[in-house]
Amino acid sequence: MKLQLYIIAAMSENHVIGLNNNLPWHLPDEWAHFRRVTEGKAFIMGRKSFEAPDALHSEYRNVIITSRPPAHAGPNVEYAKDISGAIALLSDETDVFILGGASIFQQMLSLADRMYLTIVHAQVAGDAYFPAFDMADWELASSEFHGADDDHAYSFSMNLYIRKRPE
Prior knowledge:
By secondary structure, this protein is of the alpha/beta class. The chain has helices spanning 28-38, 47-51, 83-89, 102-108, and strands at 4-12, 16-18, 42-46, 61-65, 77-80, 95-98, 114-120, 128-129, 138-146, 156-163. It has a single domain, classed as Dihydrofolate Reductase, subunit A.
């Protein structure tokens, strides 16, 4: 089977995905959605995303892209120097999730087959942004709206986009 690459991210309406290497919001139901979607799958992410205080790691397999891998990897952690090296390490997988950060999303956007993209319905301050993309390349397959409540300061929509294939 062909390796399928899936971007998974949450961004504000102004494309913010992070502030000081943390998420700029706390959305427990969105995290639960993330866990459901990615359970038992391999992850690719940059070093800063992996080291973020609020980072989620795969209990199965994490490939970290960094120019300076440590001498010893932790459990379920592998290192690659670049995107092609990460993909080569995971060539035996069928479904791989790309977790960011911004430069990893930018480099992998053209390779992704799907995007699990949560839109946080707010304009927030940040220093990391999801890259611009052409919506004409994607079909919205599903969308689930979640309103703001006592546990969620912002409303959000958990969207699944599937890349349109040339006919």
